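We examine the record.

___
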Amino acid sequence: MSGAPGFFIVGQPKCGTTALFEMLRGHPQLHMPVKEPWYFATDRQPLDSEGYPKTLEQYLSLFTGAAPGQLVGEASPVYLMSGVAAGAIAQVRPDARIVAILREPAEFLRSLHLQSVQDHVETEKDLGRAIALEPARREGREIPRHTDRPHELMYSEHVRYVEQLGRYRDVFASEQMLVLIYDDFRADNEATVRQVLRFLGVDAEVPIEPSEANPTVRVRSPRMHELLRSLYLGRGPVAAGAKAVIKTLTPARLRRDAQSALRHRALYAKPHAPDEQVMLGLRRRFKSEVLELSAYLDRDLVSLWGYDEIV
């Protein structure tokens, strides 16, 4: 369909998708004005979906600024986990190119959990306990009151790589798909981006600026995190009054910069070392997935990710 993106970065989250998006969007032959419109993942959209496109017309309007000859693209990491996005994309753009990035399961889930705490999706700071809550949460219990993306709390469901890729292989030819490994991207941003550019059929020799977006952090204090979030959103009479005064007296850009600086100083720190027993348990749990993915991609991820030592 004319005007629809010709390529999609479909996920996973916390695997370099934001950094890849930022590095690609500066290319003169690419037009990537927005990240995460989530339009095709109707089964994974936030409960509060205000601001997200609801109709195809609204979705296509996001990309109307493309110059003649530019290839339009978007990045919504939720598309890989979605059960319906692959088929919906294929209906609109059967000739689309698909880019996915995968990461070693235990490190992926650890990073995803930390990001979920930071984004107020998760309140349980301990990864092991958060994963143990999955059965209750699947029944609608133990879900944090402010989360609008409860499906993200089903951590183990994110690690179904072969099933997720299979949904795309069912509707797109193999030459329309590029599956990247996070380790390669981390080791050499530039080489991976040039691989993507060649896959997209655009100039792969343009200057490239390395990028690291959305670094993994931990939340120092969930209570302070929630307090600052309430102030930012204007929840409650005190917070609403304080926000109104700040908004009146302070320019918007200065408010945003101050809020960002305050959050990062007060709330975020480098992650603690992972709980090795939890990580080992996850690797034992997902070893069969890694074996299957290695065969599916015809690449030895078992050795690369150290699963040959997991018994």
About this structure: The radius of gyration is 20 Å. The chain has a mean pLDDT of 86. The first strand starts at residue 7 and ends at 11.
